[in-house]
User: Fold these one by one.
Assistant:
Number 1:
Amino acid sequence: MVSKQNINIALIGNPNVGKTSVFNQLTGLNQQVGNYPGITVEKKIGFCKLPTNIKANILDLPGTYSLNASSIDENVVIELLLNKNDKLYPDVALVVTDVENLKRNLLLFTQIKDLEIPTILVINMADRMKFKGISLDIPYLEEHLKTKIALISSRKGFGIQELKEMIITYRTISTEPCLNSSVIDQDYFDSLRKAFPNQLLYKLWLVITQDVNFLNLDRNEIRSSFTKSHSDLKRLQQKETIKRYQFINDVLKEGLKIDTSIAKDYRSKLDRVLTHKVWGYVIFFLILFVIFQSIFEWSTIPMDYIDASFASLSAYTAAELPAGVLTNLISQGIIPGIGGILIFIPQIAFLFMFISILEESGYMSRVVFLMDKIMRKFGLSGKSVVPLISGTACAIPAIMATRNIENWKERLITILVTPFTTCSARLPVYAIIIGLVIPDTHLFGFLNMQGITLMLLYLLGFGTAIFSAYILNKILKIKGKTYFVVEMPNYKLPLFKNVGINVIEKTKAFVFGAGKIILAISIVLWFLASYGPGKSFNNAEQIITESHINDPLNDQDFENAVASQKLENSYIGIMGKTIEPAISPLGYDWKIGIAIISSFAAREVFVGTLATIYSVGGSDNEVTIKNRMAAEVNPATGEKIFNFASGISLLLFYAFAMQCAGTLAITKKETNSWKWPLGQLVLMSGFAYIVALIAYQILK
Amino acid sequence: MYQEIIAFVVLGIAIAFLIKKFFFKGKKSDKDCGSGCGSCG
Amino acid sequence: MHTTIHSLKKGEQAIIKDFDIDVVPLKLLEMGCLPGNTVELLQIAPFGDPLFLNINGSHVAIRIETAKEIEVDIIKLNLW
């Protein structure tokens, strides 16, 4: 038989073992991120060329502690490993472990071995062995675990080449289980084996105990004849776990030696400070403060640059291309639209950089530990902190991150309140409005007022999230078993490569995901703003000439007057004018109204929409969006449209309103009901309207 | 004239894309986790 | 009243004796919380809850309500 030139490799491992680093080392940037069909679990596939020209598809499975799944992320692992017909079914499994947690990590390894897939044991973080006084007897371990072992350090990058060479010999790796776990209830497993002689015993056991799909076999059939009470099953699972640990302990007694006199430990020292009852919180809030200050201060430089470049590009195309509809579409619709997407990149990149540093370093678990008791008072869990913090990037992955909250009520409340946190889509809206209405002065010489306003908006988001959680906790009557287990991983210096790849992936997802929508909406808006029904649009020149018959305008003023006459009577102008009565008590004109309506697809459309509307409305192309907004006045009163009162009102509206179709969709998926997303939409937006109304009426 | 034709073709593509994205989500949703912020990974 | 993980003082070690399988999550068992294994209380969170433990080499945090369900025998360290 000709050896296969394309093999599938599955990367499996506990969380916090550096599985993603191994993945990145093997594949570099050659990876694809998608989702598993029907569910929103991230599916990462990478490609790698192995020696002797074999191509490998490497699938990075979600981290799991065992094959006893407790979340849909973990279900993905089991479903893939049970389905031989899946086109990604692995030819070889790499179980990634951390040399410092080998005992616990091997539990999953022994389970994978029971599935009779060729398995390589990858012992990662081998560079720490000396530091921790660990020595391994590799031949002994290979013999007793019936596997091949690759000792690597994904951090230092050694052992990767050897691992690649080991992978191509996968056919020679034993597929024999390393222990016989059926002894925990011999009679039961014997009868199971008799009933389904062609099936793998451990697979059957997984089908009985787990909530997973299993091809070719009717689960009900197995379950009805081999059913046991929930409690009995759990007792058996405990026995199974004990059995596996006994085996692991026996093997490690010979195979792993730790010289504790050499071992150094800085974890406990760091923990003493980072989880201290005063310093812990001080450090946590300092970190948050630095993040928000720096996002604002640092990203304005590239943002202003992008804004200005696109403004001059618009002017250039308008001047150079032959005049016509298409040229206008390009210079007033498409270019400002693309600019409206790219302008978010600096902030999104910074935010994801900080979040992935916090997660990579192991600090995030300390925050969970630190905040649990406080969060529980509000009906949340310490684990809700992670969604609330990553909600500052985007509510969609944040809501997905609630999956590891064990208690349903705590999880539901977290899902419902997460959209209040200030996501990166709000950031550009905030940035532009703050830039317009808050003076750029410094308090005490170093605290930027605009930065402080931004931080207050973030705090407002968190505060509202926590306050509404408190109310929901009182209203919702859901009882459920509650427990809380969180691993406290070792502190690690975040790897530049991991952080970098993560930032690139997320930014790419934004540009090509949301970006396409923003661009399409910009194009549609341009048409709606450039065409209109009836005389008042089509005869704009004539109307202006007639109305100024006694005081003729100069060319520039005439053009501007015609443009705004056209805009007001275009399709979009008519739509805006229709809703104006509803939003004028909030201090908005019809142009802002259009921007708000289009923001219900996604908030970040706001800036792009205003950019398009103002580009169409003005004749001078070489002005940035910000300057156009600053120059906008109310024709009736002569007052600036973006003044302090309307600016604050807009900020508050965007802080509270539920304007994200994507978040509504993910809430529906995660709660399995339309009730919750509809509640979010109506209550959050209603609340936003009322707060913005009050703020404007007081401040004006 | 040709400018107008191309411009309206572009409009058609944009509208078709938005309709597909927001009204036929059921079919597409397995590949795309949402339309909003896009940084869904 | 039994001695449980909740009765441990900071820095104290104990051997896990027994627990009610229906209230202790399987995930904790997989982390090594099994009869006969050692447990050490490393750190108590501000406000007294949750507890940061070293169970059989795994570093995990659990809430007091779970800790109360796990019976242990405290290892008396003879310092002299």
Note: DSSP finds 31 helices and twelve strands in chain A.
Number 2:
Amino acid sequence: MGKSGIYMMVWIAYIAAACLCQALFGRFPVDAFAFPVNVAVTLLWAVCSWVVWRERKPAWLVALLLSPQTTLVLLAAFVAVCLVQGFCGDRLSSAWWFVAVVAALLTHLLFVTLRGVRRGRSRLVRFALIHLGLLLALGGGFWGAPDTHQWRMAVREDEPTREAVDGEGRMAYMGHELRLERFSTETYPDGTPKSHVAEIEIDGGGKATLAVNHPYALSWRDDLYLMGSTPHYCIVAWVSQPWKYVQCAGVWMLMAGAVLLFVQGVGRKTTKGGQA
Amino acid sequence: MMVTWDDFVWFAAAAVALWAAGAVAAFRRRGGWAMAATVAGICVYAAFVAAFWAGLQSPPLRTAGETRLWYALFVVVAGLATYVRWRYRWILLFTTVMAAVFAAMNILKPEIHDQTLMPALQSAWFVPHVTVYMFSYGVLGCAFLLGVAGMVARSTDYLDTADSMVYVGTAFLTLGMLSGALWAKEAWGDYWSWDPKETWAAVTWGIYLIYIHLRLRSRDSHPRLAALLLVAGFAGLQMCWYGVGLLPSAQDSLHVYS
């Protein structure tokens, strides 16, 4: 069996082990990685990766993580995981095999990015924007998932509320008190709604104006969204997402990389077995 | 004088005629004329949009008909940018046909002029998100045809051209997907929520990334696999566009707007 075959077997064994964990332990314990555990684990991962990359030891691991075969196998695994999710419809992002594939993809991306930047390869800016952008966008979502929360609040006119419900129906009490001050709906001439606007009073003083597609920044990590309304109250989503800046930076870098992909087109190619 | 939908047919006819002239000039390798005619068509079409905007006293982004105005305009602008950069002779014909279809819908189905957009779709991201996606679908559709042609003819000659199209298509697909992510953050609070439509977008994007990396690794080996990936990518696009709506699992999707 050639190197490519061995690399493929390693990744298949890795994903099979993740499937076994799924069968044995059920869902991946995402909540156990909430801040500060996720920050510590991310730093540990980054430092360990850097040391392995710099020392080139163990050599087989570096070779595995830099192999073009690994790129193809992990992308194929990612597509396969998404296909399963696409057909069954469940959110499988807390499944062991999903976590395993994304973790491996992130590590591979980090190694490939380090090598590409170090080599000073052609189309370096495009390469760095795409790979680093994807690393940040995907990594921000992955490492930040345990700290991302969304609650729904029924905000009424008659009395302020702190009560909120999360996606699994668990009640929570928020750090601010919200009260609906005014709700208005602008309509088209045929009577269909054009826009909804809610004015919310926060803690008896501050005012927030919410509209669809126009959230209100409550703090550096918390935003309020207008999600729906009835004649007597409106539904407000309270989203806490401290890693959004990492994701946002990644998304914009990736977009810039996509523009360069269009402008520069097909890159330099090598002959059989080589890598551009 | 106020410009209304009644005037659209004249502007659209003039613009499409100029775009078609540009497409013909491109085929005859008259690049200067192709660009000049296409830019002139864009100016005529944009003049209608600007005058219509002034008449409405608000951006024409409220109805299905008004958004199709922008689709037609941006598809041609994207096609012109691709032509200026890469000189694909077919691209202007392709975008002219797409734009003509959008314009024809506004002319033949006047009921969509008043078909209002729900509040969730009232966003500056709506038009760019849809337009770049449609453009990428079209370009990647051409790559799919080349993949099929290559498989039928048992030839690898088509793959070099397919590579160029996949790069252009994937660039626009990425921009469409990420503009959607930025819009999702504004609308729902998260860039990515693994909604069925988003999941299928990730599948499609992943397939084209596999294609690009396979071809980067070695352009001479696995031509059949490369062609199959073009077919699989196109199947992913169809799922992403309308197929996902047929799946029972997608009935609670955030992307269901009816």
Note: Residues 5-110 of chain B form one domain.
Number 3:
Amino acid sequence: MNEHAPALHIDTLRFRYPSSVTDSPWVVDVGSFSLGVGEQVLLTGASGRGKSTLLYLIAGLIEPAGGSVSVAGRDIFSVRGSQRDLFRGTKIGMIFQTFNLLHGFSALENVLAALLFSSIRPKEHDARAKELLDAVGIDSPGREVTQLSIGQQQRVAVARAVATSPAVVLADEPTASLDPENAEAAMDLIQSTCRSVGAALLCTSHDPAMATRFTRSESIDDLATPVRA
Amino acid sequence: MAMSDWTIICRSMTSRRFSTVTTIITVAVAVGLMLTLLSMRDSGRKAFERGTGNMHLLISNDSSPLVSVLNGIFYANAPARPIPWSTFNQLVSTFPHEYAIPTQQGDSYLGLPVMATSTEFFSKFSPDANYDPSKPKEKQAGSPWRLAAGRFFERPFEVVLGAKAAEESGAEVGDVIELSHGMKTRRNQDSPAEHHTHSDFPYTVVGILELTGSSHDRAVFTDLNSTWIIHAHERRHRDDPTSPSTTQADLTDADRKITGIYLRLPTREGSNISPLLPTVAAKLRADPSITVAQPTKEIKSLFEIVSSIDQILLAMASAVMVSSGIAIMLALYNSMEQRRRQIAVLRVLGCSKPRIFGLIVTESAIIGLIGAFAGFGLAFVGSRVVAVAMKHRLGLVIDPTFDPKATAGVLLASLVLASAAGVVPALMAYRTPVAKNLRPIG
């Protein structure tokens, strides 16, 4: 892994659903995009413009039609199967609009689940998970997540996303289901937590007001591959 | 507390507690049924073998050796055709034997069969096949018969009750009872010729036997002379209603009849098998006036006859086991719809597709394994309940034992079946599209 490589680099990445006709427009079309180590970027765009699909492509959860995605200097599509899953589990953290916590599990177990599938030594899991939950303000880590408030669930989701000290955290509309006050608090937490673990942050939102929180903001429409003359 | 794949499996099972428990119960019932059937089949055979005891041959005048064994040992019916006493004396004088015990059946007491015999029945014949009458009693584990109360009969018109016979009739030592001619059935209850009470000759209960776990527990034992006297008296009374009471002195050769002979031939030291058996059996079979049965062989052939029923029962139990596998598959299959999001989240966190597949198959196997062990427990308790019921209702002692190989085979089969049942739901989980299942609901 190249230590000087950007946290994320995308090159001519294109995606359309396999069932689509061949000349239909690309759902995702990104010419070149980079995210420096620890950098925080807001990716804006109207609903349905492919922001979430781009995040799934970066995470290696869906296959592109072409192009490459490098996370911490490694092309995620050059590794396959279980190796890619392990790479994702270790180097990429994800935060979702509806948190996608594991129901039936405690806050602690949700964070431990992220560590379980990583390359981090099991001995370190427990202490690390507790420390992270403490850092995000969860004082009852043994409680089942559905018994926590929405704000607390958001905190658990953030702790889980950074549990493996990933190179990049992908946040997909993390505040879309929160009221403005909670949204502010949630973004404060996400940004500060990523900063504290040294993870880059790529956050999608269709809310242009969010741009004030980031030093760099990109519109997904502006990332498209330039049309050749 | 570290998180592991087991935590995920256990949470999955406990989050669908009702479904998990009912599926485990289904497997347990299937395994329990299979193990109980296997155990009862072996134990039942042993119980029947116990009834034949340590005799080598049973001689009668019944229509076939099997009927002879069913009537002469298991008291199915009263043997219809007698053997004259002279034939008995002539037969037993032609070859060496450890015992030749005459038996006479045909009477009953409150529906319980009466076995008239000699005192050797209690001193030499044993319902335990391993009892060797040639060895001193005290050197063997347990005497052939043990008395729960009183003593064995010594004189005419004394009876000894089998343990079950005493329990069913409620008779105690010292009671005076009247025996009946024939076995009272629906068919003959209104026919005095076939069924009537020998009211002129009361018997005294002198002893009650301990339970032996054999068919003899339901029998009432008395001596041959008593039986001959009461039947001779009936003959004399028919010929001359004014004739006085009959005594042993009034017996003619025609009155002295038996219905069976329990025969044990000389054996080698430490063996229950007689080298003379083939020769003596062949010699006796040459006599067309008698039927010669080798009880252990007859029981074996009886079990061969019923083995097809046995196999049908085992096939049914196997079908129930397969159904339990299908139940596991359906329970997991139905849960997949609710678990798609959880699977997608696990995939995002780095869980590989093969590991997801393994988690579901392991969960299925665990349900099968818990069900299998619960089934073993069920069979253990169930077979003991059946054994107690058999002992109380039929006096048949069944000692339910589980053949380790068969038990391990059934447990392994249920584990394999459960694992196989998990394959379809596991494939569904394996193919779960991640991106689609992470989208916000609604």
Note: The radius of gyration of chain B is 31 Å.
Number 4:
Amino acid sequence: MTYIQGETGDWEVVIGLEVHAQIVSNAKLFSGSATAFGTAPNSQVSFVDAAFPGMLPVINAFCVEQAVRTGLGLKAQINNYSVFDRKNYFYADLPQGYQISQYLQPIVGKGELVLDLPDGSTRTVGITRLHMEQDAGKSLHDQHPSKTYIDLNRSGVALMEIVSEPDLRSAEEAGAYVRKLRSILRYLGTCDGNMEEGSMRCDCNVSVRKPGQPFGTRCEIKNVNSIRFVMAAIEYEARRQVEVLEEGGTIVQETRLWDTTKLVTRSMRSKEEAHDYRYFPDPDLLPLELDPEWVEEIKRTLPELPDEKKARFMTDFKLSAYDANVLVNEKAKADYFETVAKGRDPKLAANWVTGDLFGALNKAGLEIEQSPVKAGDLGGLIDLIADNTISGRIAKDVFAIMFETPGKTPADIVAEKGLKQVTDTGAIEGAIDQILAANADKVEEYRSGKDKLFGFFVGQAMKATQGKANPALVNEILQKKLNG
Amino acid sequence: MSLDKATVAKIAHLARIKVPEEELGHLAGELNNILSFVEQLNEVDTGNVPPMTSVAAQKLRRRQDQVTDGGYPQDIVRNAPEAAEGYFAVPKVVE
């Protein structure tokens, strides 16, 4: 358990997150206009999205399917009867004057999510609910000195609001939660998880308390748009609350904003009175009823999810929890690894993928999909080590060349550069004889007890063969010649 | 249930309807009449009656996930009191 150290002792942070995840779909939740990102202003807006008089919403069946699929992926209860409500408030980017959402009867109830913590341990966090709702439009405040510009392209796009229980206890856990949720959504294909484009946004509910005491008063930090900011905002807000309380003050329940330039949270006073949303069932929409057979069908076609994949990697491939985590957090990484590992030593494959490959990709700023080294070729490289064509050390050089010159197979590179390992005992013996003759004094020292010199002879032998000598053979021959 | 003037003023504000102070009392009276009329329903036991969601027996209609609408930004902003560069332009609302 991580506590915040205050003047008066330890404080526990209690965090619950509300993640708004944009559903992957072609058309919006209640209209037939498109959902693509980054198009000309108001070009993907129907009269429904702009709330022209008399327009009526008609629900997109695929968005419902996506929400159910997500619920199943979170091992949650699916409610076969759910209701759409109007959440009433006025804002310039909300043309209807209300958001169609779900309030008392959401489509998905209680579920769970397993956190993978940095030390390899796991912790299960409760999901309270998931409901569907419409996104609002986008306000641009910096285009004109006295005007706000409104683009309704996002208005009416389907969102899932996924609410966690107040089960998180540190900024790190909150970060792990968002990462894991994003990973699951991407596996399911229900949200692209792209936080830079706003496809995933997070509201953080934060309070502090002395360990063992009841929950404190919480503040809600709205619309945080990166995992890094989620962690920084929570850390800041928790420390602010501790400071207020230790100075004898009280926490006022309020909505706060994360200031991404000053790196502080501050009060959004204008939101206070807006909290009276006067929810009521939307008279334009009948209750959403699901056929249990249809839900079962979606369940049957769920992909293997990160937790199951991780368990399989640990059992079948004997990988550590840490390595398995690193490999399964993105499906593309897991697929890459499985291609490399197929029919090969899985541990060696994991080392190459998580070590050399991820290191090189990271350095080059590339995603796994853009890797210049294809999984089949990395597998080929491991085969060359396994059948003694090259040593593990030379393999590193070959890998570097593969990374720089995409399309070349490891076998080509080895042949071209003459890197094939020397396994000819005669050739190695010849080289070693020369070295021993040229360093007669060191041979004498070694034989009179200076064991450490063995490494020197190995080094010389490798140097004489440009690193191509089989290291095991070099050791064996040296042992024989020096000690024999 | 009875509404006082302060509550009426709050409801009016939430609905962004401007109600002069001198009309609040009258409005409170009207709203209270409506409320007491509706309150008669409380005399009926509706514990086992599901909420009526539609006058006709029908299910929620669904649409396929196909793009069939949009693509007319000029029409969207045509009636706006003010528009610029394809956007609606409204008085600055900023935190």
Note: Residues 21 and 76 of chain B are 37 Å apart (CA to CA).
